[in-house]
Batch of 3 targets.
Target 1
Amino acid sequence: MIGYLQELLSRTPPDPVRLPLTNSHGTVLAILISYLLLVKVVGPKLMESRKPFDLRGVIKVYNIVQIIYNVILCACSAFLMLGPGNYNFNCIENLPLDHEWKNFERWTSYAYYFNKYMDLLETFFFVLRKKNQQISFLHVFHHVIMVFLCYWYLFQYGYGGHGFFMISLNVVVHIMMYAYYYQSSLNPSVRANLWWKKYMTIIQLVQFGIVLSHSTYILRRGECTALTTTARAGTIFSTIFIILFLNFYIRAYVLPKKKVVQKTSK
């Protein structure tokens, strides 16, 4: 196992084009460790004796930027996969290095990776607003693992391919998610009562279900050996996320209803 990890970390990236934050394990790990310390230890400690910041205007702008960013990313992804990239969804491989649309694939893949760093800002907003209860294990784990998985994939397998398919699904979810955040930011008092709030978690579960199904399909075919590792990773992490998000859904929406029913029946 140790030998495999050493080989994995010392492997030469398959794509010679290394965009910012895609060439150093140490840099990415340092960023993620700093993030964890700031949002779980340093930030809450500094805010302990301070009043929460009013960031309503900043958050509205942030949500709008995220919506526009992800809409453009979604359009670029669909265009590439269904158009000049001509992806074979039975075995989605990276475009060859000499393909005329390779740079488009690189930058679209990298744009998604960079967006995972943008997502980290959401946690800092919670810290500055003293919403520490929202900095849950699920929230932090999801942000950290998405940054690391994106980096790991780009470093080990290059830009595009099976990972590109999986991130395209996530982009669609993010458009709906930040649209919800923006709507709720217009009137925070109605946030808890927005009728489609719980469906965001269901949509995320559907996304993970699709990734799990497609990854399992690739592994069972056995013909697409180049994607075996990424398909295994997709299977493992989609299963983990299904468990975590399903647990959140049950605790947030199912158990409270049962308590209400029990109270009214007494």
Target 2
Amino acid sequence: MHERHHDNAPERYIGLMSGTSLDGIDAALVEFPSDAVPRLAATHAVTMPQALREALLAVCHAEKVSFAQLAAAEEGFCQLQADAVNALLRQQALSPSDIRAVGSHGQTIEHAPQGHNGGPAYTLQLDNPSRLAELTGCRVVADFRRRDLAAGGQAAPLAPAFHQALFQSPTEARVVLNLGGFANVTWLPPGDAPPLGFDTGPANVLLDAWFQRHQKGAFDRDGKWAAGGNVDAALLARLLSEPFFHQPPPRSTGRERFHLPWLERHLSGQESPQAVQATLAELTAKSVAQGVKHLLKEKAFTLIIAGGGAHNGDLCQRLARLLPQATLSTPDAWGWPADWIEAGAFAWLAHRRLHYLPSNLPSVTGAAGPRVLGGVYAP
């Protein structure tokens, strides 16, 4: 299949992201003009069917998984990815030949950059880029994390390099906070100094799971249930005693560490469900604030909040209280809706791969040096 090229026309990529919330797949069409920052051109989201969500969760948390179980979950996930890509192409009246590549993150199953019980470091994303290329007719770039891991890095977070491309200012200190299933921060010093960044801990992964257990709905809209509860100081202290929160960067985490059984181990049994929700919101805000203060002490800065948590008014108020030196903003001011940074990042990573440009940040992941990330699968 031949791609269509026009002189001075921007290159088009589609970025795919399915986060730890497992609520669906985001597809972002991103245009890359030759002389400007990437532009979000169009978006499409597909909801994850409950059966597929349960199959993926089962794979994430199972002690033993059969190859057939893995294959079935991977095929369902790949079909949903293809649905998202093909719907976006139809919506924009584009053909596969108009797209230089699809950047696929895959679905993280387990992330263990320190290894497990003395074993080798690993990070596993369920994905089938060969199948996705067949189903969409597009070139696919995938498996972005393991090259950084091979170079001694954490393989996460990867979005800070994209944050740098979009948001770094010559004069203003900025921090990008992504509030997805987990929270991560990117410190962008003024000028062209290298960014720093790391995962700060759980965000929506625990808030959503606890809400779903005790209330109707998928998430605590605007954080209203949490806002109506009282923080349990003793529970918060127990949660914050988790060693991860005191580990110096580079660091990254995922569902293998923070999940409902982890929370339940810290409960006394006397807490009200609403107090636990309030305490989880405070845990997210406190761990983010702790991470930000590690990066830049008391300097004034702009805090750019992205991800689903950007819509959580209660959580944002907690952050404003804990970080009074911050001016809160969202990526919308730069033409990027808060929900689309992560998918946009994987379009950007695919663009870097096809241009043989490094896209990890050793200052963030701890890798031995810059590396070109991802493998390419022809249509």
Target 3
Amino acid sequence: MENLDFNVQYSGITEINDVISALDKMKEELSDSLKKQWKIEEARKSQISALAHDIKTPLTIIKGNSELLNELDLTEAQKEFNDSILKESGNIEFYIKLLIDINKSQQSQSIVKESINSYEFINDIIKQGEFLCLNKNVKFASDVKEVSETFNGDISCVKRAVMNVLSNAVQYTPKRGRILFSVYNDDKYMHFIIEDSGRGFSKEELTMATEEFYQGDKSRNSRDHYGMGLYIAQTFVNKHGGIINLSNSEYLGGARVELTILK
């Protein structure tokens, strides 16, 4: 809770008071140590965030100049080198986004809840899901049950949580595979479910896949996988008083991720 500024209560028994006094001194020393640690940690996050944003400016210039070069009459070798610059610039953009996502997911500030139109939110997710799948020739389907007109939440956080899971599903689904996005609610919770026809979760992944930087079997992961998608999604879902459940889909045979958040 990051709160060690409380007063201990002493009893009328000397021996117990001696123990309480010793624990109180430990508490004070721990408080001083942790406050320094928290301050350093916040400064580190601020520096990383500032650096990530600062890198965007020179990167934009590099990409812009490289795109202009592509409009010239380049030799085959020059075009190959220039395409490599553009490709690696895209990789740097990915790393920057990853740094920003890590920082945001670790920030301790409260989420800002508002009334979210359920159908507008769901339709937005479906459109983005269809676009992601189109690029990889994956069939996208949705199954939206009758849901309440609105639900409460931080729209940015909920969207990022769902899209992180959906992006993961697209990454692990082979070409001409299938993804199913389902939504329903009960009296208390909204349920967002993403299923795919990929290889599914291993036994270890079912318990570890939401851990920060967990990468599982590296021989089956792409080099762009950093074990952050499910971790970030879980962080945002937890802030909404919800949970993430991992399983394997009986319907499509691959992974199944259910995000449950308080309405």
